[in-house]
Write a structure and sequence with these properties.
By secondary structure, the chain is of the alpha+beta class. It has 2 domains: about 20-70 and about 300-430, no CATH class; about 85-285, no CATH class. Helices cover about 60% and strands about 15% of the residues. Strands 1, 2, 3, 4, 5, 6, 7, 8, 9, 10 and 11 form an 11-stranded mixed beta sheet that branches. A hairpin with a 2-residue loop joins strand 7 (about 195-200) and strand 8. Helix 2 packs antiparallel against helix 10 and helix 10 (about 295-335) runs parallel beside helix 13 (about 395-420). The radius of gyration is 34 Å and the shape is elongated. The mean pLDDT is about 80.
Amino acid sequence: MPHLTQTAGTDNERTVRFVGRWMPDLSLGLQNLLAHRLRTLLTMLGMIFGVAAVVSMLSIGAGARQKVMEVIEQMGLRNVIVEAKETMDIDAHQRIRQLSSGLTFEDYRLIRDNVSDIVASTPRKRYAPTKIIPKAQLDTPTVYGVSPEYLRIGGLSVTDGTFFDAEQEERGAPVCVLGAGAKVSLFGAANPINQYIKVDEQWFQVIGTVASQVAAQTDVGGVPSQDLNNIIYVPLNAAIFRLENTFSFLRDEIDGIYLTLKDSNQLVPSSRVVRAILDSSHHGAADFNIIVPAQLLAEKKRTERLFNAVMVAIASISLLVGGIGIMNIMLASILERTREIGLRRAVGARQSDIVRQFVVEATMISLVGGTFGIVFGFGMSRLIALLAGWSTIVTAPSIALAFLVSISVGLVFGIYPAMKAARLDPVEAIRYE
């Protein structure tokens, strides 16, 4: 017990000595900064804008990456997707047709027969209607002709009604399921179940709706950007036999193939088999893309690390400029306070006391500037999200990184002026005019 009491007493004494050593410097530093408010504010601007740049740039990057990650994950991390490269240019279409018939059901059957790990699959026939009744309030929805297995492959969640079944798909029944955006665009707040819509010249009965999905703003890995909520799903045979327009002859028999594999380790080998099959049947026409979402996700994560490093490096230039500003102001402050430094040394202050005094001031500038910079950066990211419509995410690591860097800059760029002040000759400093 006496030993524990002695140890506790020693710790308390150390704490008291530490506080007694630093509190006067903190108080003196605060007084000096407040005495020159404008100069202090101008010195802080570099830190404020530097930290704000780090926070806002990282938030924009994090928001964009999260959106892309969500889109890729939504594609299905055990899926392999084949996308046809279709063209509306008649000359280009004819040149391709000399080598390839485009993506066909025969391709789909060959892939099914040669890739053994498939647990679900569907062809897709996409159709862009020229008119829809009731009239769409927003963009005209796109029609997807798919098999019932697309419900599982595409990760769709039915919110009302049902998805069409194999029997309806087999006979090409005139039924449809609406995406969340298509439902709002065509029917608003009304219940669309058992209502009818007219796609060009064909009527379809609405039998279900699905939940909202993440929409890509740009192409992702060869998949064209499209609002996946503004889609009307119909049975594959209904899209092929019931829907046709003047551009249908330019389209492939099917324009997409979705495959879900049992073993995620077989994604890359299976995608190579699919490519070999299509290269052979299309005679090297290169009129298709093969997308493996799991590969895209891994590549995006690698890119994310590099992107973060580059963004921080760019934004840190502003912090470097802010640090140089702190050093210049501290050097100017030393010239103004040379007599004060001489008097402190004359009455017994050590070099370490002078160093501590100026380092505390530099750190206080960077600390307050960093705090304001975080608030400013947070506001900038929200303003950018509001004006540009981008997704921005302010993460705790980005705030911590910006804050720690700002304090480090204050310490690093405050040490040289502090050392210079501590090395002044007391006698010469007192006589300085």
